[in-house]
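Review box. Two proteins, two foldings.
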Amino acid sequence: MFSRCSDAELGELASLFVEMPTAAPGQDQVLFDIGQPADSMFLLTDGSAVLESPDDELHFLYPPALLGELGALTGVPRSTKVTVRDATCYRVDALGWQQFLFEHQGFGLRVLRDVLRVAAEKIHRDQIRLGTMRQNAQWTQEGLREVLTAVKEHPGTPISTGIRDAVDALITRNRRLNVRVEPSVTMPASLYLDSGIATVVDLSRSHMSFSSQGPGPQVTRSPAC
């Protein structure tokens, strides 16, 4: 992101970062977790970092590396958990970072272009991966249907009955109908109930998850209307 910065710009930028206290040797230090507000950006200059997604996918980063830069620019809550070990990290407040970009608009434009390029590359990689996953899911469905057909041709045994029911349930669960998506941050969805307003967590064509605004986290799943 800073590869095309002048020495003067780098000097001003460096003044924004503050070195963080380090954890004991060999101890993990969590910089931020999933769902937390994106109020900072971090620069890793020594050690290593582990990025953990909600699906438990892990990515490893080594210095020099920026952490949390997209959230610091957009304000979107954290989508990954970042843990560092034996690390030297510097932190900059998100508001200070945004103010710096506003005051140095030429520099800010270059940063924005680099961030958009990185985001576009990530989206492209995700599209390829999702396409592969859809193809694999289709092949799996076809294989399960063949197994189900073969089992139905030999009914009447406890084993065949159990296999038939299990395979039938897998086919139903894997259908696209049951894929759930989260509402966009910019277009949240709500339910207006007699008891109050509930926030939609995720939904599909047949199901919806929502959380009430009562005391404590409550999530209810119900058929979609």
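Next protein.
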Amino acid sequence: MKDRLDRLKSIITKNNLDAIVISSVPNIIYLTGYSGFSYFEREAFLIITSRENFLLTDGRYSEAVSKVPGFNLLEISNSNSLDDVLKILSKKIKRIGLEEDDVTLSEGKRFKKYFKLHPAKDLVSLRTVKSEDEIKKIKIACRIGDETFSFILGKIKQGISEKEVAHQVEMFVKEKGADLSFPSIVAFGKNSSIPHYQTGNEKLRINNMVLLDFGVRVDNYCSDMTRTIFFGKADKKIKEIYNTVSTSQQLTIKQLNNLLIDKKTFEASFIDSIARNHIVKQGFPTIPHSLGHGVGIEVHEPPRLSPRSNEILKNGMVFSIEPGIYLPNIGGVRIEDLVFIRDNKIELLTHSPKDLIEI
């Protein structure tokens, strides 16, 4: 954690600030290792200066966070309100940076009473390059994801519902001592043409597409994978769709790897275009979503591989590559793997089979 705090302190210096206020739960986890705060309500702030680190929370969490090394606990209570704490801190802190994409308008106004506010730039870059410890956790999550997919193949049968499959995914993951990184997407038949379909009660029938998109969380770090299988005997059209998606992903990974080996500098949008252009050239609609996204503490984080992304892909980044074709009244195919850039080469983190599986 010290290395992470040191890098944050360099951002404080670079932006001529006295402190940065960390409010988003993923960044709090990243800097403290503590993951007990809710994503749905504000339960804590970190205030980081060049010399001191403060953790502001209430009595429900005081005992747990008192063990977080390197932080001074400032407990918020009825007799010691957030305003009281901010007023005291304002005696030695004047210019602060805020996570402008996370702080609410009312919170911003509150901080403005005591400090000069500035956007905290470059925070997004803190988590994009992963350490070996982070990679180790992501790899474990990916391994459990692969094991889950193998397990689920044995549960696919006529009459089972989407929700029943999703339940089986969750139970298997939890039996492995992990958690889901997001609610699983299980889409049968025509439902698979909806990229972010909400898993429902559709029952599996013969000659149905089965799209499975799920992730695992291990020690705060996520995996994300998608596989599409066919229940029955796939016809020529289905095979054409599947092979187009599969080839687009293979081409993308190959060209990305070649660019890295040659030490070329390129934007994420270029990688997105490789898969997108291949799919369109085969006569199918363009991908209706980004080709990929970073994965770490959050299942969606930078870098983003989209047509407009100017982010530079580099060593230490983990991200998904997930091309897809979605045809209403027919179904959809998506194949998603996580990759890691190490020593200017691509390392696949997802190892489940990608040939079309017919059950």
